[in-house]
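Morning!

This is the sequence you dropped in the shared folder:
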Amino acid sequence: MNLHYLLAARVAAGKPVRVVLIGAGKFGSMFLSQVPTTPGLEVASIADLSPDRAREACRGVGWDDARIAATKFTDDAGAAMGRGDIEVVIEATGNPAAGIRHARLAMAAGKHVVMVNVEADALVGPLLAKEAQRAGVIYSLAYGDQPALTAELVDWARAAGFRVVAAGKGTKYLPLYHSVTPDDVWGHYGLTPDEAKRAGMNPQMFNSFLDGTKSAIEMVAIANATGLDVPENGLAFPSCGVDDLPHILRPRAAGGILDHAGMVEVVSSIERDSRPVFRDLRWGVYVVIEAPNDYASACFKQYGLKTDESGRYAAMYKPYHLIGLELGVSVLSAALRGEPTGQPRELRGDVVSVAKRDLKAGETLDGEGGYTVWGRAAPAQTSLALGALPIGLAHRLPLTRSVPHGEVVRWSDVDVSRADALTADAIKTRHTMETEYGGEKTAGRALETA
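The structure's back. Tokens below.
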């Protein structure tokens, strides 16, 4: 609770915290909107594929002409990091391969990295965190996004002496969403294609939120940051409101749905028949805890905490997250405290690519939220043993064999020699991580041909 005071001290010393933002999309724009009201936090440069679009984003969130004129806009992210007074680089492109490259450039330049790009983190985050440690800088998940907020709840629970039974977030989910494509996504959001287009909404990106891929990516990021387990058969998405969290998200042996205590899971805000869940958690995050003794269990009751019928399982939750509006917490934590707001510490989970329909040899995969595959969360060792193709690399790679609907796409099913240079570099990075955590026998051998 000292970030504001630490920043005030920097202001008094005339040493603002200066950052580079890479990617001025929705998340980046939300962060930019808070900069003018955070004295001592300065954006020295914004790197975007379209610098003009980035300038317009700044105007759109209320920046005045003087602030825009004092900021450098460029399409060269590497050059933007070169200034000696830059302390933090925010990677907000959403492109896994680009995220890996930018994070490594930032670390090589001695800058802390705030990885908004959870797609890159789920793909190779544990390796990047190790590389940051060796470089003497911080690699951090992005506060305001659900993985960092969930990791914070888990940390709170453990620091207070509670056993963490489950943790995760809420979303809107139905089983049929796994087959939705960008062509029919807007009906599930209650929008027409024209309305979405006028609002500048990307159908493939929004489809990744709907088809289960983004949930899988975020739960894997949480698992890798907290040591919690990923369900063997993928996320179950039980329909569950906040009052039912301690009833449903407890081990089967205690009457819940979990294989065991200590797992990630996503709860749905709608029932399987599309009825709304009472007191849903669609926009929030949660942690289910277990009282370590009878005294603590009695305290739960005395202080009004809702529990299961045994009184031992309870939940704490945050009903909303403000995404980029909260990102400054990560930036200041890295720069002023030398601490991440969540960080992958081990390889616990992975996001495997699953065919949305029968795929034919010769077809080209189109990545998360597209027409060909969706991402399913899996334990890391299961993914490595299968030789599964991570969803973060299932883009612009042609299939060498047909893959039936619902089957996991493997490295042996794609031609990695056709990858572009940026993707080929990401593939090699992934291979390095697979070898480090799983050994050569479980590493995706197809990677070696890239």
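Headline: The chain has three domains: 3-143+324-337, 147-173+212-321, 349-449.

More detail when I'm at my desk.
O.
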